[in-house]
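Pair request: fold both.
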Amino acid sequence: MKHILLLNGPNLNLLGTREPQIYGHTTLADIERHIAALGATFGIRVESFQGNGEGELVGRVHRAREEGAAAAIVNAGAYTHTSVALRDALAGTALPFVEVHISNVYKREAFRHHSYLSDIAIGVIAGLGVYGYEAALRFLVETEAV
């Protein structure tokens, strides 16, 4: 069975209670359950990982390659805008991924407008709320990226 990595960065463990006016009330556990169940309908195993540390995320990307992950859905949180290390891990492992943002980062602070990941992602989804995760999975399946 093919599998993909659902990778979430810092503070996304606070979804459901963190700034609900921006991120809504859905928890990360809710998202993980939904994406895993949807993946199963496509015959894909979805493995979820959330980390607040940059090194944790980099290490998980390395392990995904070793485990033969076909692709990833990545919401790197604040590391989207700051982490060359995470970019290098994704580029170095050649793991195809869709970058996801719950909020529309282009309607927010200027520092959120730049992503170190977008130019190496196969797609970017921003501003669709938590549906962005489902859209990313469907895209990966329908374009046969996995």
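--- second member of the pair ---
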Amino acid sequence: MKIMTLNTHSWLEEEPVTKLQDLVDKILTERYDVIALQEVNQLIETKIVNEQELVGFCPVTNQTPIHKDNFAYCLIRRLAEAGESYFWSWEMSHIGYDKYEEGNAILSKAPLDSRAYIVSETKEKENYRTRMVLVAKTVIDNQPIVVASCHFSWWSDIETGFAYEWQFLQKELLTYQIPCLLMGDFNNPVGEEGYRLVNEDNQLNIKDSYVLAEQKSEEATIEKKIDGWENNTEALRIDYIFVPTDSKVSTYTRVFDGTNGPVVSDHFGVSVEMDL
């Protein structure tokens, strides 16, 4: 199977429509089985899409309406026009930049049974610290699996911030009792407290795909200061694909980095080829 994650920074980049098409082109070439996207935005004030136009959409309970400029909706439409269809889900976490409903998305070749979990201590949509993780049951290569598109907070301490969110999500995912793929922007660099927590307090039987991969490309997913990392001066890996521990990961590839696809975001993406 082939899977990919990307923090899209959608509509906040220069030439955003061009970069949307770059993402479409890469998906058409690679034909990923599952894709997890973060910072998937839509303007608060734009028109709501009629439900009949949401082809392949798999809503969550109390679904936030999809607007015509929803980045995932625009992506799905362009893929469909090129003959590539995906089932998809999206839900918002919070209001971003005072004008966007910002959330996470999952695209899959198989139908999705999706739920949205507010994992943060804060619950208010107006608070940028409010964090939602989108979780979906689906099937890949005849294997039932749970996929989570994650955008966590930064490390604070062992009881708040990332640590709180990780413990909350882990507890919910354990109830599914099937293998998990955790994909997305963890906002915690390799080797630091949050990353160690995932590896040391891990009841989900998952492991960093980079560590498991037989072949791997460059590691860092951010290389400079970006939103949320304004004081950063070094290359860091903060975007991950965690897979079941006994998976066979053949390749780990950094994508949308100027080498494996054009740069489309302030994050690079990650793609993995693997067998469960």
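Observation on the second member. The mean pLDDT is 95.
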